[in-house]
Write a structure and sequence with these properties.
The structure holds 3 protein chains of 3 kinds. By secondary structure, chain B is α+β, with helices and mostly antiparallel strands. Chain B contains 3 helices and 3 strands. The longest helix of chain B has 18 residues. By secondary structure, chain C is of the alpha+beta class. Chain C starts with 10 loop residues before the first strand and ends with a helix. Classes of the chains: A alpha/beta, B alpha+beta, C alpha+beta. At the B-C interface, strand 1, helix 3 and strand 3 of B face strand 3, helix 1, strand 10 and strand 17 of C. The structure holds magnesium ion and zinc ion (ZN). The site of magnesium ion has 3 residues of chain C, from loops. Chain C: It comes from Methylobacterium longum.
C-alpha cells in the first residue's frame, strides 16, 4: 500500500479541496475558484468521517462555517488577510475564547477560557478558519498521544499489510494526524522537547519549532516555560512557512517573546542551499540506530550536497546529556506551572476532608499517570537539599549544550542535519513498559534544540521498509528559521514525493 | 540518588497529589528509573559554568504603570467550581 | 552590633537579666497604580475579584510582565536606605499551596534581590540614636484575601490584593528593645513616605511587620528565635515583642528551651500563640521564574532616580538644626512627616525659626492632635500662621492675644491682620492710654501701693490688673516700665 499523491497539481477543480496544499488553497480562494465555505465544509465532512482517528477533541462546525462566510465576504470585498478562509485545526493547548480548552486533561475538562491565545488570535486576525480543537498528550507531556485523558489519537498511517493501530507521535499527535489525514490544511502545535517534530516525522508531515521567543506563549497552557514554543504542522515546507509567518511576532504580554519583525518566511522557501554549510554532528550517530535511519540521514546529506551545500562533520559534545538534563528542567518547571490546577478557580474539584484534602483528591483524580510522575520528579529535584545537585546542574549543562551549537555556528555552519527520530512510529501500547525512560528516548534527537532555544524543523524524507514515514531534522541559528525553510525545501524536493496515507478510516 | 517509599509520600504531599498505598510502589519504581537515567549528569564537569537563566539574551520587557485590566469579576469566576457574590469558595481554612 | 550592652535595655527576669534581640521583615506595599505583574488596579477595597486580571487569577497560559514603576520604586527605596542597588536581580518562584495564592507560587526574589545592604539611622526619645542594618530589600507579589467568617464550612477568596507589589525589607537583628523596634518601624515608615514609595497606611495593611524575637543573657550567643507574623500596628509591634520576650524568658528560666516557630500575636488576649497551620515543614522549592528574564538596568538609570529623590528625613533634620537653630528634638518632631516639615519651612521662611517651631509644634500640632486631624487638613495655613507670628514680632499683638487670634483663625478662618483690625485686638502701645489705666489702678489701691514698696513681687498683681483693664492689649513691656516708675520699684 503505497502512499497516494496528495494533489493533482494544476487542476484544482478536479480534486477534493482537502487535497490541496495550504498554498494552493490560498491561491484558489484568492482567484475565487473555490469559496471558503466550500473548503471548510469539505474539511468538516472529512472530520466527520475520520472520528476513528480521535484527532479532534472538539469539532466547531458552526464557528467554522461562520468564519468561512466572513472570509468569503472579505475576499469578495478585497479585504482578505494572508490566511483568509484557510481552515485550520488548533491544538487543545491553545486557549480559545468561548471554546472548551482541555490541554488533554481531565482537570480542565470543562474549562472555557474568556481569552484567546496570542498564536490563535494572530491566525484569526489573518483570516484563518477554526475547524476544532486537536487531541494531544495531557499537558503536552508525552511522545505518543497515549497520555491524553480523552483517548489516544490513532495514526492515519499503518504498517504495510497490517491494521495494527500506530501512534501518531506526541504531544502534538492530533495536529500531525489531522494534517496527514487531510482533516485540516494545517494545524497549530507546540514543542517542549520534540512535540512538533517527532509527530511530524511519524506522520510524514512538516513541523517547525521556531526559535524560543519567536511565537508568544501568552494564552497557551504552559508545560515548561523555558522550553515551550508554538509552531505549525502542515503538509509542505511552504505551508509551514506561511503559517509560521502568521503565528509568530512580538507580544508585549510575553516577556520572553522577542521584539523582532517577522521575516517573509515564504520567500525564504525557494532560496536554495548554494553556498550554505551544513553540519553533520557525529554525536547523533547513536548506538543501536536502525540502519534505515542512518541511510536516510546519509541520503539527506547527499541531496543537500547535490544542491550545492557544503557538508561538514561537526561535534556537539554535550548532546547525550540533553535528554537527562531535560528530564530535570522540564518536570521542575511543570511541577510549578501545574500548581495552579487546584480546584479553586477553574477545572475539576474533588472534595476532601479539608482544603489540603480537596487539593490532593482533585489533583489525584484530575491528572493522569505521566503528568503526576513528572510533577513528582519536578517537585523532588527542586526540593530542599536537591536543588543544586539536580536543577542547577541541569541548567549548567544547558549552557554547555548551547555553547556547543554556538561554537558550530561561529565556525561557519549555517544549519545542522540530523535524523528527527530514532525510529518510525510504533504501535499503540507497544511502549507501555514500566520504565518511562524508554518512551522519553523518542525525543533524543529533538530535545537538544529546546534546551538551546534554537529553531528546528522536521521534514519527511522517505518511508521505511514497512512503509512508514521517516523524517530528517534541521537545526538552525537563533531566529534564522529562513535558512531552515530553504534547506528543508531542498529535502522536500529531493525526496520527490508527497506521500499521504491511504484513507482507511473514511 | 534514589527515593524510598517515605520520600514518595512526602513528595506526593508536597505536590498535593493523593496517592493510594497501591500507587506508592510503582511510583517509587518509575521515579527511581528516571533518577537513575539523570544520574549520568553527575559525570559532567560543570565547574565555572553559569546556569542558563534566559534562553535568548534580551532585555526584559516592562509594562507602564497604567491600569488596563480588571472590572471583569464575572469572567474571573466563570469557571470556578463554587462561587458566591463573585468570591471563590473553598473548604474552610483554619488559620 | 557588638556594642556593650546597655543595662537600661535589659529585661529583668525572675532569676537573671535578659537581653532581647529583634530583627524585622517589613512588607511595604509599593505605591503604584497597577500591580507588580499585571495591569489590574492596586486600589484598596473594591467589589470581590474586581481588581483582578486573568494573570492575577492564574488562568492557564497567563504570563507576568513587570510594572516598570514598581522597579523604580524599589530602587528609590534602596537609595533612601543608603543601600547597595543591584543592577541585576532575579525573580524566583516560591512554591506552596494556599487558596489565596492562585498560581501555587509567589513570585519573589530569593538569591538575587534588587537591593542589598543598607542602613537606617533611628533616633530614640532619650536623644540617643542607633543604626539598624538592612540586609536586603526585594520585590514580591502580595497574596489574595481569604475571609473565614462568612460561612461555617467555607472560606471566601477574593483576589483583589493578589499580585500587588510588596517590598520586603529585611533588617539585621540589631534591635535591642521594643522601643527600638517601634522607633525603627516609625523611621522606616517616615523614609518610605518621604520617598513616596509606600503610603505607610498600616490600617489598610500597606505596612506589615514580621517580627523575629529571641532572648539571651548578655554576652551569650544568640538564642532560638520565634517569628511573629503580620503585626499590623506600631503599638502592637511593641506589645508583641514585650510579651514574646517574657514568654521566652519564663520558659528558659524554667529550664526549658525555645522551639523555632511561627507565632501569631493576639492583641485582645495579650499573647502570642503558635500558628499550627504554618508549622508543617515548608519546602518552598525556590527556582528562577522561567516566565521572567533577569531584571537588569544600568547605573545611569539608578543615577537618574537618585537625582529625582526628595530631601530625606536625616538630611532635613540636620538642615533644620543648622539653618533654623532648632534643637535636634524639635527638628525631629517637625521632620517626622514630610507635610509637617514642608509646613514648617513655609512658616519659618524669612521668620525666626525657633518661634516658628514653637508655634507649629505647640499650638498647631497640639490643636491638630486634639481634633484628630492630619497636617494635610489643617484649617490654619502656613501663611496664616506666619502672619500671626509676624503680628507678634511687629508688636501689633501680644503673645497672649496671638493665641486668641490663632483660635479665631482656626475656627473662622480669615486673614489674621484683618481679624486683628476688625476686632480691635491691636496691642495698646500708646503710653498715654496705658498710663491712664495705671493711674486709675494706683488710685484705687493705695494699700497695695504701700505694700509694693516693701514687696516688689506685687508688681505682678499690678501688671495683671493693668492688662485686665486694657483687655489684654497693653504692651507688656510698656506696662512694666510704667508701673515700676510709678511704684518706685527698680
Ligand atoms: Mg517574603
Ligand atoms: Zn469571555
Amino acid at each position: 500500500m503505497a502512499g497516494r499523491r496528495a494533489t493533482a497539481r494544476g487542476d484544482v477543480n478536479s480534486v477534493n479541496p482537502n487535497e490541496l496544499t495550504l498554498a494552493e488553497a490560498r491561491d484558489a480562494l484568492k482567484a475565487k475558484r473555490l469559496s471558503a465555505r466550500e473548503l471548510t465544509q469539505a474539511h468538516l465532512d472529512a472530520m466527520a468521517k475520520a472520528r476513528a482517528l480521535n484527532a479532534y477533541l472538539l469539532e466547531t462546525p458552526d464557528r467554522a462555517l461562520q468564519m468561512a462566510v466572513v472570509s468569503d465576504e472579505k475576499i469578495a470585498s478585497g479585504e482578505a488577510g494572508p490566511l483568509e478562509g484557510i481552515p485550520l485545526g488548533i491544538k487543545d493547548l491553545f486557549c480559545t475564547h468561548g471554546v472548551t480548552t482541555t490541554a488533554g486533561s481531565k482537570i480542565l475538562q470543562a474549562f472555557e477560557p474568556h481569552y484567546e491565545s496570542a498564536v490563535s488570535a494572530n491566525l484569526w486576525r489573518d483570516g484563518a478558519v477554526m475547524l476544532g480543537k486537536l487531541n494531544l498528550d495531557e499537558f503536552a507531556m508525552g511522545s505518543s498521544n497515549e497520555t491524553s485523558a480523552f483517548g489516544n489519537v490513532v495514526s492515519p498511517w499503518r504498517r504495510r499489510g497490517s491494521d495494527a493501530p500506530l501512534v501518531p507521535g506526541g504531544s502534538s499527535g492530533g495536529s500531525a494526524a489531522a494534517v496527514a489525514a487531510q482533516l485540516c490544511l494545517g494545524a497549530t502545535a507546540t514543542d517542549t522537547g520534540g512535540s512538533i517534530r517527532q509527530p511530524a516525522a511519524f506522520t510524514g508531515t512538516v513541523g517547525i519549532k521556531p526559535t524560543y521567543g519567536r511565537c508568544s506563549r501568552w494564552g497557551t497552557v504552559a508545560f515548561a516555560s523555558s522550553l515551550d514554543q508554538a509552531g505549525p504542522i502542515a503538509r509542505t515546507v511552504r505551508d509551514c512557512a506561511i503559517l509560521l509567518g502568521s503565528m509568530s511576532g512580538p507580544d508585549p504580554r510575553d516577556t520572553t517573546c522577542a521584539d523582532l519583525a517577522v521575516p517573509d518566511f515564504e520567500a525564504a522557501v525557494s532560496r536554495g542551499v548554494k553556498g550554505l554549510t551544513i553540519g553533520i554532528p557525529r554525536e547523533y550517530r547513536v548506538d543501536g540506530m536502525p540502519a534505515e535511519i542512518q541511510k536516510l540521514w546519509d541520503e539527506g546529506a547527499a541531496w543537500l550536497k547535490a544542491a550545492g551545500a557544503t557538508l561538514r562533520d561537526i561535534s556537539l559534545p554535550h548532546t547525550s546529556y540533553a535528554l537527562p538534563a531535560y528530564y530535570i528542567v522540564a518536570p521542575a518547571e511543570a511541577s510549578s506551572n501545574l500548581a495552579r490546577y487546584d480546584g479553586v478557580r477553574y477545572g475539576l474539584r474533588v472534595p476532601g476532608k479539608d482544603i489540603a484534602g480537596m487539593y490532593e483528591n482533585t489533583r489525584a483524580a484530575g491528572f493522569g499517570r505521566e503528568v503526576k510522575r513528572r510533577i513528582m520528579i519536578g517537585t523532588y529535584v527542586l526540593s530542599a537539599g536537591y536543588y543544586d545537585a539536580y536543577y542547577v546542574r541541569a541548567q549548567k549543562i544547558r549552557t554547555l549544550i548551547k555553547r556547543d551549537f554556538e561554537a558550530a555556528y561561529a565556525d561557519g555552519v549555517d544549519a545542522i542535519l540530523t535524523p528527527a527520530t530514532p525510529s518510525a512510529a510504533f504501535g499503540i501500547g507497544e511502549k507501555a513498559s514500566a520504565d518511562p525512560v524508554e518512551m522519553y528516548l523518542n525525543d533524543v534527537f529533538t530535545v537538544t534544540v529546546n534546551m538551546a532555544g534554537l529553531p528546528g524543523i522536521a521534514v519527511p524524507a522517505g518511508l521505511d521498509g514497512q512503509g512508514l514515514p521517516l523524517g530528517l531534522q534541521l537545526i538552525g541559528r537563533p531566529f534564522d528559521e529562513e535558512t531552515l525553510f530553504a534547506v528543508a525545501q531542498v529535502i522536500e524536493d529531493s525526496a520527490g514525493r508527497t506521500a499521504l496515507p491511504e484513507p482507511w478510516w473514511a | 540518588m534514589s527515593v524510598d517509599e517515605k520520600t514518595v509520600r512526602r513528595i506526593a504531599h508536597l505536590a498535593r497529589i493523593a496517592v493510594t498505598d497501591d500507587e506508592v510502589g510503582p511510583l517509587q519504581g518509575e521515579l527511581n528509573a528516571i533518577l537513575a537515567f539523570v544520574e549520568q549528569l553527575g559525570t559532567v564537569d560543570v565547574s565555572g559554568v553559569e546556569p542558563m537563566t534566559s534562553v535568548t539574551p534580551m532585555a526584559m520587557k516592562k509594562r507602564e504603570d497604567v491600569v488596563t485590566e480588571g472590572g471583569r469579576a464575572a469572567d474571573v469566576v466563570a469557571n470556578a467550581p463554587e462561587t458566591e457574590d463573585n468570591y471563590f469558595l473553598v473548604p474552610k481554612v483554619v488559620e | 552590633m557588638n556594642a556593650p550592652v546597655d543595662p537600661k535595655k535589659l529585661i529583668k527576669g525572675g532569676l537573671h537579666d535578659w537581653e532581647v534581640i529583634v530583627g524585622m521583615e517589613i512588607h511595604a506595599q509599593v505605591s503604584s497604580r497597577a500591580k507588580l505583574f499585571s495591569g489590574a488596579s492596586t486600589e484598596f477595597g473594591g467589589e470581590p475579584n474586581d481588581h483582578v486580571s486573568l494573570v492575577d487569577a492564574a488562568m492557564p497560559g497567563m504570563l507576568p510582565v513587570i510594572n516598570e514603576e514598581c522597579v523604580a520604586q524599589a530602587v528609590r527605596t534602596g537609595l533612601g536606605l543608603k543601600a547597595q542597588i543591584n543592577l541585576r536581580s532575579v525573580f524566583d518562584r516560591k512554591n506552596y499551596f494556599y487558596p489565596d495564592l492562585p498560581q501555587g507560587y509567589q513570585i519573589s526574589q530569593y538569591k538575587d534581590p534588587i537591593v542589598g545592604e543598607g542602613e537606617v539611622l533611628v533616633d530614640m526619645a532619650d536623644g540617643s540614636s542607633i543604626t539598624v542594618g538592612i540586609e536586603r530589600l526585594h520585590l514580591e507579589q502580595d497574596a489574595g484575601k481569604s475571609l473565614h467568617d462568612q460561612d461555617p464550612t467555607r472560606s471566601f477568596v477574593d483576589l483583589n490584593r493578589s499580585g500587588v507589589a510588596l517590598m520586603e525589607i529585611v533588617s539585621r537583628p540589631d534591635l535591642r528593645s521594643s522601643e527600638e523596634a517601634k522607633a525603627y518601624v516609625t523611621k522606616l515608615r517616615t523614609i518610605l513616605r518621604y520617598l513616596g514609595t509606600c503610603d505607610g497606611d498600616m490600617e489598610k495593611g500597606s505596612l506589615r511587620a514580621d517580627v523575629n524575637v529571641s532572648v539571651r543573657r548578655p554576652g551569650e550567643p544568640l538564642g532560638t528565635r520565634c517569628e511573629i507574623k503580620n503585626v499590623n500596628s506600631i503599638r502592637f509591634i511593641g506589645q508583641a515583642i514585650e510579651i514574646e520576650a517574657r514568654r521566652q524568658i519564663a520558659i528558659l528560666e524554667d529550664g526549658g528551651s525555645i522551639d523555632q516557630e511561627t507565632r501569631l500575636f493576639d492583641p485582645t488576649k495579650g499573647e502570642t500563640r503558635s500558628m499550627r497551620s504554618k508549622e508543617e515543614a515548608h519546602d518552598y522549592r525556590y527556582f528562577p521564574d522561567p516566565d521572567l528574564l533577569p531584571l537588569e538596568f544600568d547605573q545611569a538609570y539608578v543615577d537618574t532616580l537618585a537625582e529625582g529623590l526628595p530631601e530625606l528625613p536625616d538630611a532635613k533634620k540636620a538642615r533644620f538644626v543648622s539653618a533654623f537653630g532648632l534643637s535636634p528634638y524639635d527638628a525631629g518632631v517637625l521632620i517626622a512627616e514630610r507635610a509637617s516639615a514642608d509646613y514648617y519651612e513655609a512658616v519659618a521662611k524669612d521668620r525666626d525659626g525657633k518661634a516658628a517651631a514653637n508655634w507649629v509644634i505647640n499650638e498647631l500640632f497640639g490643636r491638630l492632635n486634639k481634633e484628630g486631624l492630619s497636617i494635610e487638613s489643617t484649617p490654619v495655613s502656613a501663611a496664616q500662621l506666619g502672619a500671626i507670628i509676624d503680628l507678634i514680632g511687629e508688636g501689633v499683638i501680644s503673645g497672649k492675644i496671638a493665641k486668641d487670634l490663632f483660635e479665631i483663625v482656626w475656627t473662622e478662618g480669615g486673614d489674621p491682620r484683618a481679624v486683628v483690625e476688625s476686632r480691635g485686638m491691636k496691642q495698646v502701645t500708646d503710653t498715654g492710654a496705658i498710663e491712664a489705666a495705671v493711674d486709675q489702678i494706683i488710685a484705687a489701691n493705695p494699700d497695695k501701693v504701700a505694700q509694693a514698696k516693701e514687696k516688689p513681687t506685687l508688681l505682678g498683681w499690678f501688671v495683671g490688673q493693668t492688662m485686665k483693664a486694657t483687655g489684654g492689649k497693653a504692651n507688656p513691656a510698656a506696662v512694666n516700665a510704667l508701673l515700676k516708675a510709678k511704684l518706685g520699684i527698680d
